[in-house]
Write a structure and sequence with these properties.
The complex is a heterodimer of chains A (349) and B (292). Chain A has helices at residues 2-8, 17-37, 40-51, 53-65, 73-91, 97-121, 127-146, 186-208, 210-220, 222-227, 232-258, 268-281, 286-304, 308-325, 330-348; strands spanning 154-155, 158-159, 166-167, 173-175, 180-182, 260-261. By secondary structure, chain A is mainly alpha-helical. Chain A has a single domain, classed as ABC transporter involved in vitamin B12 uptake, BtuC, CATH 1.10.3470. In chain A, the strands form three sheets. In chain A, strands 1-2 form a two-stranded antiparallel sheet. Chain A starts with a helix and ends with a helix. Chain B has a two-stranded antiparallel sheet. Chain B has one domain (2-217). Chain B has helices spanning 2-35, 42-58, 63-84, 93-115, 138-160, 162-172, 174-179, 184-206, 217-231, 235-257, 259-276, 280-291; strands at residues 128-131, 134-137. The chains are: A mainly alpha (349), B mainly alpha (292). Chain A binds chain B through residues 63, 69, 71, 116, 119-120, 122-129, 131-133, 135-137, 139-140, 143-144, 147, 268-269, 272, 275-276, 279, 307, 309-310, 312-313, 315-317, 319-320, 323-324, 327, and chain B through 32, 36-38, 40, 85, 88-89, 92-95, 97-99, 101-106, 108-110, 112-113, 215, 218, 221-222, 225-226, 228-229, 260, 263-264, 267, 270-272, 274-276, 278.
């Protein structure tokens, strides 16, 4: 138990100590009770903000901790979304089969990540190429899905529907005797929130474990780690698969949230967003990424009222400013700034 | 006789794909070969070249001059970006790539706001010619020769000029070159401008054949990526063979089963190439020569 807590509170995550965890619990309780004192519109929006955090957390583990920069996380996102659509439309929502669809939709992106990762990491290619290959895969996948408009592009009962995307998939359902529990509105929100909690804590355990230590060492210098007898490729492949799976989770939840998925949700603009959230928040810390993702999706949504292009321009500028001015990420920089101030005050007192 | 016509049609397709791959990869490859930076704003330099070409041609400039203007504009933008942004990030590889991506987003969306979803294009010059019953565009038939000429010019630049010697020295060992009195910073800066201008030229050359839209860079970017990955770091050695091989694959697959399959074929080729030749074709050539 003590070891477990030590891992959770470990050295490779910034937020730790009693103060942090008290704050964390307060935020979580407030988040969990949101549906009781806001309307359904706000709950739907909150769900939307949380949906993206998985993809960002996964990218943070890959890029921030492991030094693997993938530009194409949305390929896994889209694959998962489409898979859920195809499977759930074919199986229907009886007998708990939507959960089977969910499972399949999570497995496929991990599988894709493993195959793609095998070719990349076991080919021994350099870091920049990982970005190029993932981005190319994503763009070609998007082009492919966008041309599936014709009636010949159906899988079972599900029409892929080209550029307009797929819709009409059933929500997650727990089939009871007389009444079904359907996951939309508050139940979906709680489900997503619970998943955020589980994934966030799980990834904290992971990065603070031995696995995380090796991963961070690989980020520093892969050759040195290899010389010390570690199977670097294996670690990189695992991190890549985790990232792919997390992006897939975001994709499924997004599909569940809106009951639709389109090719443009993985295009160039969509693919840039996870990079922006992770870089802006501070890629080397999970908590910072979590906060930044929710904050930035909220800002984007507010700006989208004036037009999507303005939101994207601001995100682009933000990314540029962060890279030039605060390479550790603005959330991390802010925290560091206040910590230094506090320390200074203590010294003076 | 019919077979001959068909054969020419296939050759034309191949040459067209070769030209497209070479031209879209050139600017990217030069910047990558020199600094290891993948310039993700590459597509936007192409877009910039195309827009300036179209706008100045419609304003009454002769087409070759308009193309020159497009090239110069992209080079100028490249100079400004290098001066103010990229220069600060040379020691930080990932950051420089992410920075060029953010530039790409801002440029695309900015163009969308300023110039709208598309602008009126210009006609493809020079008409068409006929082989048997098939008709081909003269202009597109000339593009492969322009691509070859550009490769030749670059070869001359990198092998015969003082700049070329300095830049090759910088690629090989930057700190040693610096110690011997080469101004490596200015070499980097010039290379970036050269890469940007070449991208602009690509946009200018293809401007008469496609509609100028803010997202047109995306049409080039996958092709340019795959060409550069297959080519590897040494542009002079790898780019032309890489574009030839990929062009062959793309033309064959496109001819057999459509544009999309052609693109997917390229991608599969790339994934196989990085598994077997992680340093690309040029790395393969170099290693073979080294062993002799």
């Amino acid at each position: 138990m003590r070891r477990f807590l030590n891992l959770l509170n470990g050295p490779r995550t910034l937020g730790r100590g009693l103060q942090f965890w008290v704050g964390f619990c307060v935020v979580f309780v407030i988040a969990a009770s949101m549906p009781t004192f806001t309307d359904s519109f706000a709950v739907t929006n909150l769900t939307f903000f949380l949906v993206w955090t998985f993809m960002a957390l996964g990218l943070s583990v890959m890029w921030g901790y492991g030094g693997i920069l993938s530009f194409g996380q949305t390929a896994f996102f889209g694959l998962a979304g489409y898979t859920y659509g195809v499977v759930s439309i074919n199986l229907g929502d009886a007998h708990g089969l939507t959960w089977v669809a969910l499972l399949v939709a999570l497995l496929l992106p991990v599988l894709l990540a493993l195959v793609l990762g095998y070719f990349m990491f076991y080919g021994g290619i350099r870091d920049v190429f990982v970005g190029i290959v993932t981005l190319s895969v994503t763009l070609v996948f998007e082009t492919f899905m966008a041309q599936t408009a014709g009636p010949e592009w159906t899988i079972g009962d599900a029409r892929l529907n080209g550029f307009n995307g797929m819709s009409g998939m059933p929500p997650l359902t727990i089939n009871g005797g007389e009444s079904n529990l359907i996951f939309d509105g508050p139940p979906l929100y709680w489900f997503v929130l619970a998943l955020v909690l589980v994934c966030y804590l799980g990834l904290r355990l992971l990065v603070n474990s031995r696995f995380g230590r090796v991963l961070v060492a690989i980020r520093g210098n892969p050759d040195r780690v290899e010389m010390l007898g570690y199977n670097v490729r294996m670690y990189q492949l695992s991190a890549f698969a985790i990232g792919g799976g997390m992006a897939g989770l975001s994709g499924v939840l997004y599909t569940l949230w809106g009951a639709y998925i389109t090719p443009s949700s993985m295009g160039l603009n969509a693919a840039a967003l996870p990079i922006i959230w992770v870089a802006a928040g501070g890629r080397k810390d999970l908590t910072a990424v979590l906060v930044a993702t929710v904050a930035l999706t909220w800002v984007s949504q507010q700006l989208a009222i004036y037009g999507n292009q303005y939101a994207l321009i601001l995100m682009g500028f933000l990314l540029l400013c962060v890279v030039l001015g605060a390479p550790e990420g603005f959330v991390v920089s802010l925290v560091m700034f206040f910590k230094r101030k506090l320390a200074l005050r203590k010294q003076l007192a | 006789m019919d077979y001959l016509f068909q054969a020419y049609a296939v050759f034309y397709q191949f040459a067209d794909a070769f030209a497209f791959l070479t031209l879209s990869g050139l600017g990217l490859a030069i910047i990558f070969g020199m600094m290891g930076v993948i310039n993700l704003a590459h597509g936007e330099f192409i877009m910039c070249g195309a827009y300036v070409t179209v706008l100045s041609a419609r304003a009454g400039l002769a087409l070759p001059l308009a193309m020159l203007a497009g090239t110069a504009a992209a080079g100028l933008v490249g100079y400004l970006l290098e001066r103010h942004i990229v220069r600060r990030l040379y020691q930080r590889l990932f950051d420089s790539i992410v920075a060029t991506w953010s530039i790409s987003i801002v440029a695309t969306q900015g163009m969308l706001i300023v110039a709208g979803p598309s602008i009126e294009g210009i006609k493809t010059p020079m008409g068409s010619f006929e082989v048997g019953s098939l008709s081909f565009s003269v202009y597109r038939a000339i593009l492969p020769f322009i691509a070859l000429a550009l490769l030749g010019a670059l070869y001359w630049l990198f092998v015969r000029t003082r700049f070329g010697v300095h830049s090759r020295a910088t690629i090989q060992d930057a700190s040693m070159a610096k110690a011997l009195g080469v101004d490596t910073r200015s070499i980097y800066s010039k290379t970036f401008v050269l890469g940007a201008a070449l991208a602009g030229l690509t946009g200018a050359l293809y401007a008469p054949t496609m509609t100028a839209v803010p997202t047109m860079g995306t049409a080039f970017i996958v092709q340019s990526f795959v060409t550069v990955v297959v080519s590897g770091a040494d542009v002079m050695l790898g780019l032309a063979p890489s574009a030839a091989i990929l062009g062959l694959i793309q033309a064959a697959l496109t001819g057999l089963s459509g544009q999309l399959i052609g693109q997917i074929g390229l991608l599969v080729t790339v994934i196989i190439v990085i598994r077997t030749l992680p340093t690309g074709l040029s790395g393969f050539f170099l290693r073979r020569n080294g062993e002799k």
